[in-house]
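Query structure, 406 tokens:
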């Protein structure tokens, strides 16, 4: 069974949204699309027996956490003290924490907040083990894990490959310390990036081959994130089967912590045209910034979809009059960075100052990675509710910009 085979809630058609009525710039989350995703994730959790928690590094829109709880998603994974505090205050469920390294300053508070605590190395485990043991002796219920690196991944972009050469993330089999396992009751790995369940199945084969001898001593295994189960065509049945078989084979509790799967295709970044200039090509300047508001466009890199716009001719030297009636524009932001450009798109009519330009699929990862670079206006955050009502849930002004500086 794939995503398209499941009976999921209907979503709001983009054609019915009055984009001009939404302030610009704004990240807009569509409640109907989020409900669709969380309904599917809840189905996987129920049928597989795994615990699925939300990874804040990919989706941390806390105004929607009440909706997630409606579907039985009651935990979160944090990568820092700030995210752990947010999980405790707003998610109101289990707090899972993993970071590549913990500082002496932050660790006591992290230890206080965490229900599951994963160490990236045995040296960090040895450093903080006395504090963990003291907390347990005082009555704290705490699961402790070690992250392993199976040295296997199917990630095309090196920047996002946690199992690449010389990775700092996780313990390889060569460096694994069986003599330090006392007090550790779980293993954690994370090697996927927006992958299907067949990749997970192949990854588990390597994990079991490298670390299977230690699994009988464990109570739980965290499969990390990157399980893009809400993408069209994803093999849901395979995921459920793989998780069930692993649980039964090893007698462990399984945890999945996707981020993208929650926010996948759930909303947009609404922008507007501030100016149109010409330098060989027509260039539209928008009230957003690629570097400040869509950094993955430069980091991955990837090309976001713009509603109502198409790709340019493959021959970049063709004039606009040769594009079959389309109107090509380079789309850029308003910072002083020369490379603050999304790319070239073809529109069905000329762009005018004030026109809305709507970027698709801008909720997962994009929102959590924004900055105040150049002090440019930061997009609002809003929700398009199922009844068609638009709600602005956050607006950013000078005080937020100033608070980041000193």
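Result returned for the query:
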């Amino acid at each position: 069974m794939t995503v398209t085979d499941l009976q999921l809630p209907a979503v709001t058609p983009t054609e019915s949204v009055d984009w001009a009525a939404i302030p610009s710039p704004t990240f807009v989350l569509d409640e109907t699309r989020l409900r669709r995703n969380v309904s599917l994730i809840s189905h996987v959790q129920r049928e597989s027996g795994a615990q699925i928690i939300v990874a804040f590094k990919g989706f941390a829109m806390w105004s929607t956490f009440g909706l997630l709880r409606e579907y039985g998603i009651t935990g979160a994974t944090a990568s820092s003290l700030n995210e752990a505090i947010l999980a405790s205050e707003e998610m109101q469920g289990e707090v899972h924490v993993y970071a590549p390294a913990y500082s002496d300053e932050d660790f006591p508070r992290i230890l206080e907040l965490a229900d599951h605590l994963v160490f990236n190395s045995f040296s960090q485990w040895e450093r903080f083990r006395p504090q963990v043991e003291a907390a347990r002796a005082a009555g704290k219920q705490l699961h402790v894990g070690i992250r392993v690196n199976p040295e296997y991944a199917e990630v095309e972009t090196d920047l996002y490959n946690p199992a690449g050469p010389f990775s700092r993330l996780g313990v390889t089999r060569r460096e694994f310390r069986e003599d330090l396992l006392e007090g550790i009751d779980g293993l954690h790995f994370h090697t996927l990036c927006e992958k299907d369940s067949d990749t997970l199945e192949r990854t588990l084969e390597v994990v079991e081959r490298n670390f299977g001898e230690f699994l009988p001593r464990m109570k739980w295994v965290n499969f990390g994130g990157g399980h893009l189960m809400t993408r069209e065509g994803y093999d849901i049945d395979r995921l459920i089967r793989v998780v069930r078989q692993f649980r039964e084979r090893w007698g462990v509790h399984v945890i999945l912590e996707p981020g993208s799967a929650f926010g996948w295709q759930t909303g947009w970044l609404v922008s507007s045209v501030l100016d149109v200039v010409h330098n060989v090509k027509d260039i539209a300047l928008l009230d957003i910034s690629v570097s400040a508001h869509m950094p993955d466009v430069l980091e991955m890199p990837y090309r976001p979809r713009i509603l109502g716009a198409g790709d340019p001719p493959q021959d970049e030297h063709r004039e606009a009059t040769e594009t079959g009636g389309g109107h090509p524009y380079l789309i850029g932001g308003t910072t002083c960075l020369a490379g603050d450009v999304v790319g070239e798109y073809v529109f069905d009519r000329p762009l005018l100052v004030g026109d809305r330009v709507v970027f698709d699929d801008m909720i997962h990862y994009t929102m959590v990675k924004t900055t105040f670079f150049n002090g440019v206006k930061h997009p609002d955050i809003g929700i398009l509710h199922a009844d068609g009502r638009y709600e602005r849930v956050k607006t950013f002004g000078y005080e937020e910009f100033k608070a980041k500086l000193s």
